[in-house]
Amino acid sequence: MLVVLVASRLLIADDNATVRRMLRALLETHEGWQVCGEGENGLEAVAKAKELRPDVVILDLAMPVMDGLRATREISAALPGVPILIHTLHNAPGVELEAKKSGARRIVNKTESADELMKAIEEALGGTGQQEIVQSAAGSISPDVNAAATGNGSSEAPAASDELNGGAKPN
């Protein structure tokens, strides 16, 4: 039996470039998480979610072009199994209810500790930091996954362990 650990892919969208950079740096400190894309508004978040099919989407609420609630509705409609977290400074009454009605799993206030956001992501991922792909000896596995798992194949498919440690090669 072949077991491959695959990094959980996170998409972040915030109109503030500094917040996006800080979020990426924070999230990628967690073993098994990878930020697969970023957007600076809700419209970009929807397009990137459809293209990249992340495991979790983290959206700001107040963004230009398309706000986080509308983006949540559109992403939820296109990718119904993907959990969406709203990461916002807005804590007005009714915001959480509107976010949940739009399809958000949870709201995490930006004034809360980073640990709260990390915990919310872990919960959205079902308590795991990584996805596990188990392949029986009798089944088939895609050539890309097989190459990533075994380290064989094209030079473009890194070994699974390489992907999880940012491409660093062991000593």
Number of strands: 6
Overall geometry comes to globular
* Rg, alpha carbons: 17 Å
DSSP helix count? Answer: 7
Describe the structure in your own words.
This protein is an alpha/beta fold and 171 residues long. It has a domain at 7-124: Rossmann fold. Helices cover 38% and strands 22% of the residues. The protein has helices at residues 17-27, 42-52, 68-78, 95-102, 114-124, 143-150, 160-164, and strands at 2-13, 33-39, 56-59, 84-88, 106-109, 130-135. Strands 1, 2, 3, 4, 5 and 6 form a six-stranded mixed sheet that branches. Helix 3 (68-78) links the parallel strand 3 (56-59) and strand 4. It is globular.
List keywords for this structure.
38% helix, six-stranded mixed β-sheet, disordered C terminus, Rossmann fold, single chain, alpha/beta, 7 helices, globular, 6 strands, 171 residues
Short description:
By secondary structure, the protein is α/β, with parallel strands linked by helices. The chain has helices at 17-27, 42-52, 68-78, 95-102, 114-124, 143-150, 160-164, and strands at 2-13, 33-39, 56-59, 84-88, 106-109, 130-135.
